[in-house]
Amino acid sequence: MAVPARKTSKQKKRSRRGHIKLSVPAMHYDATTGEYRLSHRVSPKGYYKGSQVVKNETNND
């Protein structure tokens, strides 16, 4: 049965696990609605690239 000869140090363990992390979503400010939204997505109010592409009857803004 294989048993490690020495204890793995904290530095070695953390450098090996350095790529395991959460990624931050790409958010940007939408000047049309004045809100932040995900890139390449339609805003909650139905705007994309400055023009309204989805008509939303529930919002009275």
Give the assembly state of these chains: single chain
> How many extended strands?
4
What is the alpha-carbon Rg in Å? 23 Å
* Structural class label: alpha+beta
Strand content: 15-25%
Largest sheet: 2 strands, antiparallel
The residue fraction in helices comes out at 10-25%
Shape type: rod-shaped
Please provide the ordered H/E string of secondary-structure elements.
Answer: HEEEE
Query: Order of strands in the sheet with the most strands?
Result: 1-2
Distance between the termini: 68 Å
Stretches where pLDDT falls below 50 for ≥5 residues?
none
- Total number of helical segments? 1
Q: What would the average pLDDT be, to the nearest integer?
A: 86
How would you characterize the overall build of this protein?
- This protein has one helix and four strands.
- With 61 residues, the chain is α+β, with helices and mostly antiparallel strands.
- A hairpin with a 4-residue loop joins β1 and β2.
- The radius of gyration is 23 Å and the shape is rod-shaped.
- The N and C termini lie far apart (68 Å).
- The mean pLDDT is 86.
